[in-house]
Design brief:
By secondary structure, the protein is of the alpha+beta class. The protein has two domains: 10-113 and 251-256, no CATH class; 117-248, Aminopeptidase (3-Layer(aba) Sandwich). It has six helices and eleven strands. It has helices at residues 10-29, 67-78, 94-102, 140-151, 206-220, 235-242; strands at 35-39, 42-46, 55-57, 84-88, 106-117, 131-134, 166-171, 177-186, 189-197, 225-230, 246-256. A hairpin with a 5-residue loop joins strand 7 and strand 8 (177-186). It is globular.
């Protein structure tokens, strides 16, 4: 029987946030240009000013968070010239939540954390009718270009992202790269991210195929849970729901400006 996903499941939130924090740490270890530190039970990651990878993840799920720990978290970013950026789980310790309210943090965006249980049968989900390939050092730049164009993000903000985890490209019949996706596996959880399709290739089911491909690969090596973070109501939100993902909880991404 497929386990039920419940938004009240604190143990599930702990597992997902721990996977996010561990993934951020592994990402930093994969390159010499990123910096990270474990703070307040989570991981702070600095990937450069303005980088979408620069933020704190998984904080406040491992016990009480003191004011001194919040000071340390903020100093990590401020000392590097960055605003303090936190992806805040709604089940984080109230000490962290109170600090966010008292210290004048502002809202950046909401993210839905979606979850899907995996079983051995999901290994058969791999797409058979598309040209999906694993990214290599030779095609890493193509992957970065598709992600930047798909998210309408300046390439210079993400060009230092390392080749890491499940990194996939889709090519059209002219062998042009038109869609990309990323992912990683931590303690039985596969994290799916970086889904990007070029505007001219949208509406063909490419993101859905990339979701299925990553789920199949994760199930093949024994992962039992998949997660993704999406903007509520977005195309990605709908595509992940079509793939069987359900809402676990909503994160609030907040920022405190550097003094």
């Amino acid at each position: 029987m497929t386990p039920e996903i419940r938004s009240s499941d604190l143990a599930l939130a702990h597992r997902l946030e721990a996977a996010e924090a561990a993934n951020a740490l592994h990402l930093a270890q994969a390159t010499t240009t990123f910096e990270s530190e474990m703070v307040a039970g989570g991981c702070t990651l600095f990937a450069g000013l303005g980088s979408p990878a620069t933020h704190a993840l998984g904080c406040g799920l491992c016990g009480p968070v003191s004011s001194a720990e919040v000071d340390r978290l903020e100093c990590f970013f401020f000392e590097r010239g960055s605003d303090c950026l936190i992806d805040l789980c709604p089940m984080a310790d109230m000490g962290l939540v109170a600090a966010v309210m008292e210290r004048g943090y502002t809202l950046i965006e909401f993210n839905n954390v979606l979850v899907r249980p995996l079983c051995a049968a999901d290994a058969a989900l791999a797409a058979q009718d598309l040209n999906i390939e694993s990214v290599t050092a030779a095609t890493h730049r193509e992957w970065l270009d598709v992600v930047a164009r798909g998210f309408e993000t300046p390439l210079e903000l993400i060009e230092n992202l390392p080749l890491y985890g499940q990194t996939l490209l889709v090519r059209d019949d002219r062998t042009l790269a038109v869609a990309a996706a990323g992912g990683s596996m931590v303690d039985g959880v596969t994290l799916l991210f970086g889904d990007a399709t070029l505007p001219e290739a949208r509406g063909r089911g490419l993101q859905g195929a990339l979701i299925r491909e990553r789920l199949a690969r994760a199930a093949h090596v024994g992962c039992d849970l998949a997660m993704a973070c999406v903007l509520p109501g977005s195309g990605s939100h709908r595509n992940y729901e079509r793939a069987g993902f359900r809402l676990a909880y909503m994160r609030v991404n907040v920022k405190r400006a550097r003094p």
